[in-house]
Amino acid sequence: MVFHVKNKTEIFKIPQQDGIPNVYFADYLGTQNRKVTNPITGSWFRMEKGPEATPPTYEYDEVGVVVEGEITLRDESGQSAVVKAGDTFYVTRGSTITFSSNSYGIAWKCGTRLPNKL
Q1: Residue whose C-alpha is closest to residue 49's, from 105, 106, 104
Q2: C-alpha distances in angstroms, 113 versus 4, 17, 22, 26, 75?
Q3: Short-list 24, 17, 13, CA closest to 48
Q4: Residue 100: exposed, middle, or buried by beta-carbon count in 10 A (0-12, 13-18, 19+)?
Q5: 83 contacts 45 by C-beta, under 8 angstroms
Q6: How do residues 19-39 score in pLDDT, each as one tens digit?
Q7: Which of 29, 61, 66, 114 is deepest in the core (most CB within 10 A)?
Q8: Coil vs helix vs strand at 45
Q9: Cα-based distances in Å from 95 to 2, 9, 18, 39, 92
Q10: Which one, of 29, 32, 54, lies nearest residue 110 by Cα?
């Protein structure tokens, strides 16, 4: 099959990120061929109110859209922005971004990387 479809109910199945009580993340669609030079992966991300989360430095470019709620992004220089439902964001390869939310936010993110697992 040349395309893949996931039902909108998948948003309710986002698993909790290991060791972080308020972060939920999962790869849902993406490049299956491990040998391609330009992979892409789509992921659901949910951030709930709680401690900030700083994943490792991005080794890939990523674009996202907040579909519900709001998420605060802060880079290593201290610059921050609150992205709300309908807003898009872009994270440059090599960046370290801290995520937080005063309530919760759900985003669909696409990164130029292979999926962790599908």
Answers
A1: 104
A2: 17, 18, 24, 14, 21
A3: 24
A4: buried
A5: no
A6: 788 999 999 899 989 899 999
A7: 66
A8: strand
A9: 33, 31, 21, 19, 6
A10: 29
Helix (H, G, I), strand (E, B) or coil at 13: helix
Sequence-separated (6 or more) residues with CB below 8 Å from residue 50: 21, 22
Place of tokens 């696409």: 110
84-112 residue pLDDT tens: 999 999 999 999 999 999 999 999 999 99
The beta strand positions in the chain, using DSSP E, are: 23-30, 41-48, 62-75, 80-84, 88-91, 97-100, 104-111
Mean pLDDT across the stretch 41-65?
94
Q: What is the DSSP letter of 8?
A: G
